[in-house]
Amino acid sequence: MTFIQAYEQMWLNYTNFRGRANRPAYWKAVAVNLVLSIIFLFVTGHSSIASTIADLYSLAAFVPGLALTIRRLHDTNRRGWWWLIILIPIAGPITLLVLLAMRSYPSENEWGSPPTLGGPLKY
Fold first, then answer.
1. pTM
2. 17, 32, 56, 59: which could join 7 in a potential S-S bond, CB 3.0 to 4.6 Å?
């Protein structure tokens, strides 16, 4: 799966809070999102319209990103509610980052079979 395909899957599955998302698909989508955010950051310094567009993009990307994060947590055999650990100062974001970087649970779990690495994601 390419970076663009992973990013596209994030948007296509924006309301899907079930299933699993493997590590490469998650981090590729996050990387594209990060690059776009950096581009918006540089552009917003020059225009209030660009700043508004960047804010709208951030709002629009929140739910798809959250759904993808929850599917990634499912892939590590954890409940999606673990994303709330980010609310704990300092330790929370670090813990969430570690959980998201963990290997996929190797066999079927409550949220389905492991997604394949080469082919399309199973949601």
1. 0.87
2. 32
